[in-house]
User: Which sequence fits this backbone?
């Protein structure tokens, strides 16, 4: 960032948030989401269908990629008359974005002048996506609409636990965005008190970040007997799959705080979140159109926000429990409702005979665990999986839950699978600060 821009942001940080950080587009889309509460299911479905027609027409008429794809597949936007016609539209995948990203940009924009966003690349090579301030304002409106369920208002300060920081700094206070950013790769028992003191000094009352990072933070608070020093208004979980043991640990430390998890991605093709006491994910129907690949259980989404680089029927690598487009009584403005999101289809493990098992099936074995602060499955050979558990609980208590997990895994991997148990005080995260629950090292380790 230039010195001039940095100085300007420093000055603007003293102005009320609504005047410098959010604009007309933000308020227009926040109002759009608020209006859903006063619409019936049929009205929302009609608005959703129109948004779908609009983005498909835009993509066909103003991008090289979709014009070529739809002509090749024999699809024309005029064929989209109702939801039964959606399946006529070709599905696209990450590889399409990787190979043809610039050709997906709407013709009136130059990719070189747009904001470039990168996915984390935790399941392979990262993607480059194109956006602008208008699209980002719409996204922020959607997030704020969700977070309002736990009292968050635009401009409220938040403490972020979302990975590493430049220069290996322990934390950075950004008054312009009202965030205190914590370096989750640098937290230790020696500096945890300094972090808590920085949080208290900021006055910020919302903790936001990776579930794995907030679980680790909670564990350090327990270990150093600092749990009474700070209770936020709410915990905001995002960017990773949420496990029961993480919810239990974080909830036990911040027992007076509300907890909310949302599911979203840099691609912005699906956005859902917890509602009330339910840990099911309720999706915003005017944010995107969400479907499911019935064969793989993968989520498919079409973004209504991004008219810079449309992503239409984009198949994610995340698998979910079966769902349909029905709304639940009392919350009929949010649909579909997905009971659980079980992980990434791209992370494959193997049975001893070589048959593949997607990691979402494996993740189910960890449900109901409470004594872990983290758990990682490392497959060293086709017939050997190491279960690495991070916990500060008594070994005999942890072993009881590990045995329960092993029994569930045997049903998936068969009795021919061998399991090695490792209990450690800390499991190393990736360089980005994210936590990988599954790692396959078959063929990557020396033969003993």
Assistant:
């Amino acid at each position: 960032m230039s010195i001039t821009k940095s100085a300007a942001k420093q000055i603007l940080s003293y102005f009320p948030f609504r005047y410098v950080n959010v604009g007309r587009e933000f308020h227009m889309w926040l109002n759009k989401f608020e209006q859903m509460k006063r619409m019936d299911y049929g009205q929302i479905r009609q608005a959703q269908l129109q948004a779908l027609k609009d983005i498909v027409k835009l993509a066909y008429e103003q991008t090289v990629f979709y014009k070529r794809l739809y002509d090749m597949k024999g699809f024309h936007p005029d064929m989209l008359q109702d939801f039964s016609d959606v399946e006529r539209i070709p599905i696209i995948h990450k590889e399409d974005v990787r190979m043809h990203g610039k050709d997906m940009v709407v013709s009136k924009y130059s990719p070189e002048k747009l904001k470039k966003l990168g996915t984390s690349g935790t399941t392979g090579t990262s993607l480059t996506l194109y956006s602008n301030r208008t699209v980002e304002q719409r996204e922020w409106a959607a997030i704020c609409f969700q977070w309002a369920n736990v009292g968050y208002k635009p401009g409220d300060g938040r403490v972020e636990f979302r990975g590493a920081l430049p220069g290996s700094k322990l934390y950075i206070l950004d008054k312009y965005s009202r965030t205190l950013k914590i370096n989750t790769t640098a937290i230790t028992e020696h500096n945890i008190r300094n972090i808590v003191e920085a949080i208290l000094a900021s006055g910020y009352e919302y903790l936001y970040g990776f579930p794995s990072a907030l679980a680790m933070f909670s564990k350090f608070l327990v270990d150093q007997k600092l749990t009474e020093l700070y209770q936020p208004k709410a915990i905001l979980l995002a960017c990773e799959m949420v496990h029961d043991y993480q919810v239990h640990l974080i909830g036990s430390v911040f027992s007076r705080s509300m907890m909310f998890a949302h599911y979203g991605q840099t691609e912005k093709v699906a956005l859902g979140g917890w509602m009330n006491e339910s840990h099911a994910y309720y999706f915003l129907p005017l944010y995107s159109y969400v479907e499911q690949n019935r064969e793989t259980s993968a989520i498919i989404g079409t973004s209504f926000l991004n008219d810079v680089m449309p992503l239409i029927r984009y198949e994610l690598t995340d698998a979910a429990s079966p769902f349909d487009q029905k709304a639940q009584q009392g919350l009929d403005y949010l649909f579909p409702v997905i009971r659980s999101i079980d992980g990434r289809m791209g992370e494959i493990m193997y049975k001893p005979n070589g048959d593949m098992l997607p990691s979402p099936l494996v993740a189910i074995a960890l449900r109901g665990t409470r004594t872990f602060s983290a758990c990682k499955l490392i497959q060293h050979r086709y017939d050997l999986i190491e279960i690495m558990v991070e916990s500060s609980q008594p070994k005999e208590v942890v072993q009881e839950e590990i045995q329960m997990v092993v029994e569930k895994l045997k049903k998936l991997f068969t009795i021919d699978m061998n399991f090695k148990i490792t209990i450690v005080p800390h499991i190393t995260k990736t360089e980005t600060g994210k936590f990988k629950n599954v790692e396959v090292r078959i063929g990557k380790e020396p033969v003993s």
User: Anything to note?
Assistant: The chain has twelve helices and 21 strands. The first helix runs from residue 3 to 12.
